[in-house]
From TrEMBL:
Entry keywords, A to Z: Membrane, Sugar transport, Symport, Transmembrane, Transmembrane helix, Transport
Transmembrane residue ranges: 23-43, 83-105, 112-131, 171-192, 204-223, 285-309, 321-343, 350-374, 386-407, 428-446, 452-472
Broad class of the protein's primary localization: membrane
An annotated GO cellular component: membrane
Topology within the bilayer: Multi-pass membrane protein
Family: Belongs to the major facilitator superfamily. Phosphate:H(+) symporter (TC 2.A.1.9) family.
Record carries keyword S-adenosyl-L-methionine: no
Organism per entry: Forsythia ovata
Residue intervals of the Major facilitator superfamily (MFS) profile domain: 26-479
Location(s), subcellular: Membrane
MF terms in GO: symporter activity
Pfam families, A to Z: Sugar_tr
Keyword Membrane carried by entry: yes
Designated name of the protein: Sugar transport protein 1
């Protein structure tokens, strides 16, 4: 059974070192990069549901909503191309920026990319906060997008390189944690600014994006670069010293040697993008493409971008909608902690699989609830309290499932499976695919809601089903394997072996294959 294999390859080294306070703090600071991404995800939905914002920038949508033009069909109430463009334009900019970020991250170091990311985001926040017309809104969002592109390209890589391999999962997930804190902060801010009497609440919501940007810029300026990046740029001595400091031990020779070897290999490669397409890197290419694709096709961002709009659509009042999106924000944030505490103990696969099943069940329940009440014509009549409660609970359980599986793992796994020579390029593919499909969901969601009606969540559940099988069959466990040793897991995996092992090369000394159904098969050297 291909998928159920946990591999302990002979190359599984145990570098000495511990989780030092320095690394812990460094990772928390670097993870702040997630704040800017999260803040933006959380703020757009609330802002686009504020009447004063709509009246000023999107009067057509405002009229449609306020005057109930378009009838009582709740499914199509908010469908406006210009409005969705506001939310989704950022992701196009992020997608382009992440490709440039790959070059900067590789040649100038992770830290420079992070500082640049924060600075671009800051410019975007200022332009948006001062916006007087639609053009300013879009320009601001382009800057915000570039900031997100740079930050998302560099931060996960930085975290995975800094962390001792035994704690890599948890430390990398600080990134997701700060995404969720950013989303929650934005939800809270929207909740208060929407009540402002002067009609300028949206301005505060958009302008306050400057705060996470400033935190991230200052934090990044204080951070050291990773040993991997220093070696990559020829600063060997400094790198060894850095490694000693962050591992908290004198003897880092073995890890250092492996990093140097990885760097020598990496230097031989002049075109990392082309290299990533070669057969040898097929498993990495597949995962850095499909993991972000599937992460977005879980449908999570329907809730993150449009929770207030969605809750309004299914009959909640203005206040109740913002309140409910606040609740999903809290669940999202709290559930991420579960993955931080479990990922290095139980591994990535368990979380991926459990989260997938949980999301699937909730999507079916949500579909039934909305279908029963709204039918195909979208006229629900009176909504009882118990009904609203069931929908909110199902959405919260779904959000929790995402928050401890595909959310954090969608950033962790791609960043830890890439060898140094294609790490920056591969991470850009990850960010770009993520952004393309984030854009896609933001763009088409309102249209899809109008066309698919209550069947919308069935659409996503089909993908959730597919992605769970995909992980089960194809992803080997990456827990507890040093990042520069990761090549071994593909050599020992029945599906990926033929791509990565040269015909003449001896296969790795695979110690054991452990089947998920508790069946253990001991194998000798094949
Ligand atoms: C995803 C975002 C999503 C967020 C929700 C992230 O991992 O990339 O698209 O909005 O999680 O917490």
């Amino acid at each position: 059974m291909a998928g159920g294999i946990v591999i302990a390859a002979s190359g599984n080294k145990g570098y000495p070192g511990k989780l030092t306070g320095k690394v812990f703090i460094t990772c928390i600071v670097a993870a702040m990069g997630g704040l800017i991404f999260g803040y933006d995800i959380g703020i757009s939905g609330g802002v686009t549901s504020m009447p004063q914002f709509l009246k000023k920038f999107f009067p057509d949508v405002y009229r449609k909503e306020e005057l109930n033009i378009g009838g009582t069909n709740q499914y199509c109430k908010f469908n406006s191309q210009t409005l969705t463009m506001f939310t989704s334009s950022l992701y196009l900019a992020a997608l382009v920026a992440s490709c440039f970020a790959s070059i900067v991250t590789r040649t100038c170091g992770r830290k420079i990319s992070m500082v640049l990311g924060g600075s671009l985001f800051l410019v975007g926040a200022i332009v948006n906060g001062l916006a007087t017309n639609r053009l300013m809104l879009y320009i601001g969002r382009a800057f915000l997008g570039c900031g997100v592109g740079f930050a998302n390209q560099s931060v996960p890589v930085y975290l995975s390189e800094m962390a001792p391999y035994k704690y890599r999962g948890a430390l990398n997930m600080f990134f997701q944690m700060s995404i969720t804190i950013g989303i929650l902060a934005a939800n809270l801010i929207n909740y208060f600014t929407s009540k402002m009497k002067n009609g300028n609440g949206w301005r505060y919501s958009l302008g306050l994006a400057a705060v996470p940007a400033i935190i991230f810029i200052i934090g990044s300026l204080c951070l050291p670069d990773t040993p991997n990046s220093l070696i990559e740029r020829g600063k060997q001595e400094e790198a060894k010293e850095r490694l000693r400091k962050i591992r908290g031990v004198e003897n880092v020779d073995e890890e250092f040697e492996d990093l140097v070897n990885a760097s020598i290999e990496s230097k031989k490669i002049k075109h990392p993008w082309a290299k990533l397409l070669s057969r040898k890197y097929r498993p990495q290419l597949i995962f850095v493409t499909f993991i972000p694709f599937f992460q977005q096709l879980t449908g999570m961002n329907v809730f993150m971008f449009y929770a207030p709009v969605l809750f309004k659509t299914i009959g909640f009042g203005n206040k109740a909608s913002l309140m409910s999106s606040l609740i999903t924000g809290i669940v999202n944030c709290a559930s991420t902690l579960v993955s931080i505490f479990t990922v290095d103990r139980f591994g990535r696969r368990v979380l991926f699989l459990e989260g997938g099943v949980q999301m699937f069940i909730c999507q079916v329940i949500i579909t039934i609830c909305i279908g029963l009440k709204f039918g195909v014509n979208g006229n629900p009549g009176v909504l009882e309290n118990w009904y609203a409660l069931v929908v909110v609970i199902a959405i919260c359980v779904y959000v929790a499932g995402f928050a401890w599986s595909w959310g954090p793992l969608g950033w962790l796994v791609p960043s830890e499976i890439l060898p140094l020579e294609v790490r920056s390029a591969g991470q850009s593919v990850n960010v770009s695919v993520n952004m393309i499909f984030t854009f896609f969901i933001a763009e088409v969601y309102l249209e899809m809601m109008c066309v698919f009606k209550f069947g919308l969540f069935i659409f996503f559940s089909v993908f959730v089903f597919g992605m769970t099988i995909f992980i089960y069959k194809l992803l080997p466990e990456t827990k507890g394997i040093p990042i520069e040793e990761m090549a071994e897991i593909w050599k020992a995996h029945p599906c990926w072996r033929r791509y990565v092992v040269d015909r003449n090369e001896k296969p790795p000394n695979v110690m054991s294959y452990e089947m998920t159904e508790e069946v253990k098969i001991e194998t000798k050297e094949v």
